[in-house]
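Reviewers asked in the last cycle whether our approach scales beyond single polypeptides. To address this, we selected a multi-component target totalling 665 residues and predicted its structure end to end. The input consisted of the following lines:
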Amino acid sequence: MVSPIDSLEAPGEPPLPTGVPKAQIQGRSPWYLAWLRLRRNKVALACAVLFVLIVLFCLAAPLWAEHVAHTGPNENHLTDTLLIDGQEVDVVSPDGTPIGPGLHGKFFLGADQNGRDVMVRLMYGGRTSIYVGLAAALVTTILAVAVALLAGYYRGWIDSVLSRTMDVIWAFPVLLLGIALGTTLSIGGLKLGPIAIAGDSLWIPILIIGLVYVPYFARPIRGEILALREKEFIEAAVAQGKGPLRIMFSELAPNILSTVVVFFTLNIANNMLLESALSFLGAGVRPPNASWGSMISDGYQVIFTAPHLTVVPGLMIVLTVLSLNVFGDGLRDAMDPRAKIRLEH
Amino acid sequence: MGRFVARRLLGMTGVLFAISVIVFLIFNVIPNSDPAARIAGKNADPALIARVTADLGLDKPLPVQYLTMMKQIFTGELTSYAKDRNVVEQIWEGLPATFSLCIGAAVLWMALAILFGYLSAVHAGKFTDRALTILSLVGISMPVFWLAAMLLYYLTFKVELFPTGSYVPFTESPGEWAYHLILPWFTLAVLFVGIYSRVLRSNMLDVMNEDYVRTARAKGLSERQVRMRHVLRNSMIPVITLFGLDFGQVIGGGAILTETVYNLDGVGLYAGEAIRSLDLPPLMAVVMFGAFFIVLFNTIVDILYAVLDPRIRLGEAAPA
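The resulting structure, written as structure tokens, was:
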């Protein structure tokens, strides 16, 4: 039976280039094959490009702030006026309503209640949101891979202890745990031996978000490692006298790399959503630093008079998270062996 | 089987105990500041702080404080630091709103997810499938609170279709109750519709290639019967598992964002307020309450799995 999914999700093996003798194609690595499959998924590639563009947009924040908007992300312009079509317009009108979006360099996307330039804040806020999402994904990935390797390799009591710990984190209501940690840590910061983190540091949301998602990733990879552990090549490595670390990193780790890459991409998207939720509830990124979530939190107070303050950062979150989700899906289809199996039907 | 259930229940108690200790530590060790001083207010004199400390038993060693707090939770005598109100009563008062929101949303998300997943799988690769895939991807990419804010702005303010949030008890007026909850239900359901319909779609596509489906066709069942009775039913198992886990999360605090934006007087809103005032007792109780539901549903799923699949009883844990 021909599965109709072929055309949509898992583009087939690319046709062999004409005139190339078969022998020359033998040496294609799985990564190269995955890339060939990914290359045919135009939607996923478009989303990757979109994500890169969003990152570039955010990286350009200082340029825009300096050369176009002439203001920083946290500078108030409560009493300023703006010259539009020869008319003086208040940045924030006397009744507290800020100026809306318009095609002028200053206040391109309008101002907020404090007269801060929304465009500039959006760009700087995006840096924070993406930075937190990326860094937290790194934290999660490193911790989860370490837990899974240790638990899956040693099994026995180490596995029991690690798995039960994961169970406990898993059983926490994710949001409540995040908010509880975010609120308490922001009071006095974190002091753990030589590590000291200030209460308003970005590393607090990063570590919290990184921690709460560890079990969601550690569990499935632990399963993969447990299965790989039984394979002959591990037995061979043991017989060659390789030590535990060697086996974990040079034998087991490469085999879960494709899972890790896919998870990492999708995890950034999830982290950005959690960061925005925590910031919205006041337990994430601390003011005056902007993140897209905290911008929505601020803007939501005046949603009925100045909806652009809520709409714009929310749209940026949706675009960024969507692009990561679609690209991550495409990556999974390209790398997941199951996708290959489906092709053979 | 009895031993398996007993083991899971014992594990459940252990996890709840660990969670209560962690929450207690989070609030007593991390903040680096004296809770009595926080409660007494900004300009309190030392005598007042000392009295608050003695009143709340904060001068006793941490294990004693922990035991007192747990005893109060189970006897229903726990009172909050900040507002001096009975915590268990307050959670009890929040239950109708939270349950109304979560159960209604759950019904909605399961119904829509099954419909969308089914249509997607049946029309895989065609326009319907693509459109539904895009919809669900957008759904899982939206911050819940932002969606809530947008619906609130466009559907209650710009176009006055729905009332602006707040909860009307079912006993007062069932019509108003539902009318006020339509937007919150929809908001909470969107994310899960996106996730579940995609899981169901890919499961159905897998199951469609199974031999027993070919057998069903070969024995002359109509395509509809094959899809409903053989494909859909067998594809539902992972979705039910997910449902067990997510429903626990949603009741246990996952609905906090929806409750906050729509101003529904539920457990989540209560927890949010407690967190902002760093009020430990309510938070302790709410997290325990939430964790209880999560662990409970986890355990139910595990036991159900064991009933369905004897191999799991012999192994260590059910697949997540």
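Chain A touches chain B through 59 residues (CB under 8 Å). We regard this as preliminary and will revisit it once experimental data from Aim 1 are available.
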